[in-house]
């Protein structure tokens, strides 16, 4: 494998920003020092650029197998790398659902063949796959995914016995989608009664309501406390839920952690008028006050991780009326750029961005030797220019669905180079086919 020398980067890592050189060899960071004068196969002059650990996205839907007309692992991993995400953890609501070890292995095989980024795939839980779920290897599978509310793919776990069994016996981290099904159904029925086919997108956060989220998230917390489960609650969308989480112990000691997603940090219900179903997500984007409280929890440590819930559907599907349009949208290519805009606005610091998108994700999942810029660690890195605008157009969207909720927006920063496991996989606006990323390993 070739060597790379990065000269004069502003390295953002572990709470500080310092000018440094980085030498990469055999996929790993061999040396970090103020000045390195080694010869390398490739030298990158990073004067004026910031070097960050590549993002680790702990929640994506890449749709393969089964839904590859929407997206596939090859296309979406390339979009991720172009966006500065070097590792992803992918969800089991593919077709067939990843509910057996064999079906899960099939996804790892596809990842090995076609993913440009490093990858891990969640094992799915259902009402009746306990035996298969128990066989999950904590060393090389990121976690068990439980849909405690139904979303795309009909993977609802609604049997109380199954939930207790999963929370009591899961061999590794349990990640949950929390929306109380009965509440969502009752709200939906009430809106249907009143408005018939005229139920519209602005009603989405009232149907998939605060109460639905809180009931389900608090139930997950209760179960985790009862069984001492390692619980990670995904995509917190309400201010009320943020009070379920602690910030008075180190992340490593937490048994319950939480994730916020870029869309819940960027959009609010005021955006439904202009964006319509293109910002229809489950859980729904809620009020500006919710968004503010989620930010507060991110910054004070009650929410540990920022990710995307990248979930592409086709433009045609999203153009259907509210009742037919599926929830979800593509985000991996623009997540870092969106967060860098928030840095420019003073919402968070660069150091906090790196902590929430890489360091903490690695700590939360015990990812082995990634997520930090440290000697001996894998070289998963992204170089960004904070002073070079980047306009999102249909032509530069790499996700297979070819649309983005950010289309037409100009971000203040540009991603210049992305390095995945020591290979330059994206540079100056182009994907470089350097072979597949690595399967993530976990220190557990
Ligand atoms: O909006 C969503 N879309 N939320 C989910 O939990 C699933 C996702 C999808 O797979 O489309």
From TrEMBL:
Any GO MF annotation of the entry: dihydroorotase activity
- Is Nuclease given among the entry's keywords? no
Name the enzyme group at the top EC level: hydrolase
Q: What does this protein do?
A: Catalyzes the reversible cyclization of carbamoyl aspartate to dihydroorotate.
**Documented EC number(s):** 3.5.2.3
Q: Which cofactor does it need?
A: Zn(2+)
Name its species.
Answer: Sphingobacterium corticis
| Protein name, UniProt field | Dihydroorotase
Alphabetized UniProt keyword annotations:
Hydrolase, Metal-binding
Q: Which CDD domains match?
A: DHOase_IIb
Entry keyword annotation includes Cell membrane: no
Where would I find the Amidohydrolase-related domain in this sequence? 51-424
InterPro entries with a match to the protein in the record:
Amidohydro-rel, DHOase/Allantoinase_Hydrolase, Dihydroorotase_CS, Metal-dep_hydrolase_composite, Metal_Hydrolase
Organism domain of life: Bacteria
Q: Which family does it belong to?
A: Belongs to the metallo-dependent hydrolases superfamily. DHOase family. Class I DHOase subfamily.
